[in-house]
Amino acid sequence: MAQVRKAHPKDLAAIARLSHQTLLLGREGPKVFPSETLWGALFVAPYLEAGCCNLVAEEEGRVVGYILGACADRPLALAFAKRLLWALPRLLLGRFGPPLPHLRYLLRLLRYPGPKAPKDRYPAHLHIAVDPEAQGHGVGKALLAAFLKCLREKGVPGVQLATTRANRAARGLYRAMGFWVYAKRASPFWAPYLGRPLIHEVWVRDLE
Fold it and tell me: Out of 57, 74, 87, 173, which could bridge 65 as a Cys pair, Cβ 3.0 to 4.6 Å?
């Protein structure tokens, strides 16, 4: 059985590997964003530096799941901006491979943001992933329960997360853990990668 513990900076590589492998709606995404190293620098390291309640699930010394969270957006945005300023010149010089796929992904993130819930009521947010080989054994549920407990202990009033209607297994977990759909929007973000637009959703949970 996987054990849930606090995530540490030393977990960066393991979390980045799992996050990168599952970025395409739970499937490997190197065609979407080829560099695992750059993915970790931009989308994992800022959470480990400025997030809160970050957790990993470990089995026999191997990270098989994680939650990356933030209790507020500003510290995370500053950490991301710092990493982006470091990465962008290296990206343009080809240090992470061909720049175009990475730039395309980053620009589409800016162009097609998903729906958001009010930050005063739901200031925290999270990203969660479980290794496909470890799914179905309660890892996601254990991570999410521990994360919500941590937020309550910090006095956070509510939390939100983003997903798509195509992510059926995750949506079932969120519903079972007390989340509900606050808003949804058809988005063309994934169309170049999957050949079709998807419905993006924001789910919320009150903690007070």
Answer: 57
Choose among 5, 13, 21: nearest CA to 135: 21
Alpha-carbon distance of 162 to 201, in angstroms, equals 6
- Report the pLDDT value the prediction gives residue 26, as an integer from 0 to 100: 67
Look-up of token digits 């209790």: 71
DSSP three-state, residue 164: strand
Which two structure tokens, joined as six digits, stand for 195?
């050949």
Of 140, 114, 126, 161, which is closest to residue 57 (Cα–Cα)? 140
Nearest to 41 by CA among 93, 102, 98: 102
pLDDT of residue 30: 75
Q: What is the predicted pLDDT for the residue at 27?
A: 67
β-strand partners of 65: 57, 130
Phi-psi region of 162 (alpha: psi -120 to 50; beta: other; left: phi over 0): beta
Cβ–Cβ under 8 Å, residues 124 and 75: no
Alpha-carbon distances, residue 48 vs 123, 135, 149, 171, 184 (angstroms): 18, 24, 19, 25, 29
Report pLDDT digits (tens) over 103-118.
999 999 999 999 999 9
DSSP result, 16-55: HHHHHHTTBTTB--TTTS--HHHHHHHHTHHHHHH-SS-E
